[in-house]
Amino acid sequence: MTKRAKREISLFQYILTISGVQVGFGVLTLPREVAQGANTDGWISIIIGCAITTLVSLCIVKIMEKHPGYTLLDVLTRYLGKWLGRVAMIFWILYAVLAAVSLIFSLLYVIHIWILPRSPMFLIMMLLSIPMVMLACKGVLIISRYAVFTVLFTLWMPLLLFIPLKDGHWVYLLPLLKVSALRDFWGTASYFIVFLFPVFFLLYMTLYQHWKRRKI
Fold this sequence. Notes:
Elements: H1 11-38, H2 42-65, H3 72-80, H4 82-115, H5 121-138, H6 140-153, H7 181-215
Helix pairs in contact: 1-2, 1-4, 1-6, 1-7, 2-7, 3-4, 4-7
């Protein structure tokens, strides 16, 4: 196996990695933010967010198909020019960094408050940094494999959601659009739009190389 082949990911890994990122960013903060933004219509906001991210990911794939072998910086430079392309790339990096920092601090606070309240925050951070650094150093391929493992290993967990359904009442979903359609839309913005778009670009680079080798 060549060095390039070791850095490639399959379509299955691409899909599960995107799903893992969505769950990873949303499991800690999404319920609260959606409830604040859309109230009882939060489930509508989630459907809208899923549709938006799916549409944007398809658009990104089509854009990258027109420019085989290009990096994200090359595409931005081609469409925006040299300077604007570099500025957009800087914003893309800042988005990715802010998303990672937001997720890490959210995870730290949850662990510190609910699991290890007597442990100092810096110690928890050090323990979390070890697996994160190990995964990051190995590149996108290892991260995608880790995402596949976690998704397949936790497939049984959604079944637990059926347990409390016997005590549920569908009437509590009414009335639809209780607040407003605009607030339902903005209930999705805090998560789906802000944090996920850079990931599609990053993962597609390695996914395209996998498709290219299969065609050859």
